[in-house]
Structure formats: structure tokens, C-alpha cells
Amino acid sequence: MRHRQVLALAAVAFVGLTGCDGPDPNNLETYYDDPASTSAPASVTEAPVSPAKAAPAAPVAPDLGLLAERALLSDADVAEEGVQRGSSEVSGCLTGSVSASSRTASWQYPSGSVLRHRVAAYPDEAAAQAVANADCAGKTVSVPAQAGVDRQQAWCEGKTCTVLLAKGKLVSGLTVSASTEARAVDAAERLLPAMAAKLAAQP
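The structure assignment produced for this chain is given below.
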């Protein structure tokens, strides 16, 4: 009877040893194994990379001809002078400002006096220097200083007077040929505020 009990205990012990699935706590090679290490590695989600911002567009150069056109006196600007459109021929001090980007307008008084306006553009922004270097015939005269311009000069030769204003890239020139120097100066002074305002409004 005792012999059978010993065999039964041995059989139970053997089954207990072979049925154990876990790592042997006494086996240092398997004791620290992570059961989760046998599973598939977790996928790594990368943060979306924002596309590179487009480089800012280069500033567009202004149309010099358009700037000159905008600064040119209009019929409405000279309406109070009682003038009519005349020849756009350029003469006197204004001939040095002729270019593809220049704009010219001319009007005639009932008395025969002539009013000419020309706006010339300088791409290198040397308008003020151009006025400073201008060498118009006759004597320099004083006219009211205009706000919003970089430089101005005025000359009279006999009965013809010319005023040049500069701002940024533009030179605005007005020539008045009248019956007397005094009348030419007066007409120029009346139109100077409109000239300066249109010039100062341009970039």
C-alpha cells in the first residue's frame, strides 16, 4: 500500500513540472524576459511636416510711364485758366526731360499765351538730382514752396517762366509763356498746388 502512494505522488509531481508554462523563477536567463517583447513592435507615427512656405514674390517695379501719366495735369486741373488744348510740342527747359516714360500736355490761352506741362520718370530715383542739375536759361525766381516734393526750382527768361518739381522718380515741369513775365509767374503759381499734389500722390 505504501508503495502505491509513493508512485502516485511521483506521478503528480512529474505532471506538475511538465505542465508549467511560465518561466522558471530560478532561471536567470528567462526570469527578466518581458512577455510583451514577443509581440509586434508598435508603429511609430511621425508628425506631419508642413510644406515649406513659398518665398515671397519680388516686388513688381512700378510702371514709370503710368506714374508720369498720373502726375500729369488734366483738363480739369487747368479749367479755371480758361485754356484750350494745344500742341504737345516740348520746348525750353522741358526738352531735357524727354524719354519713353515722359508724358506731356499743352494748352493755349485765348490771348495766345501757352501753358505746357511735362512729367518725366527717372528709374534710378534721381529726380531731385536732375532738378538740382537743371540749367534753364534766364534768371532764377522765387515761387511758393510746395509740400510733399523733394526739390523745386524756377526760372524766367523774358516772358517765359518754368518751374520744376521733383519727388521720388518723377520730375514735373511747367512752362508758361505769357505777355509779360509777371503774368507767366502768376499763372505758374496758381497751378503749382495742383502739380505738387498730383506728384506727391505717386509712390
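Interim note for the steering committee: The first helix runs from residue 2 to 18. The chain has five helices and seven strands.
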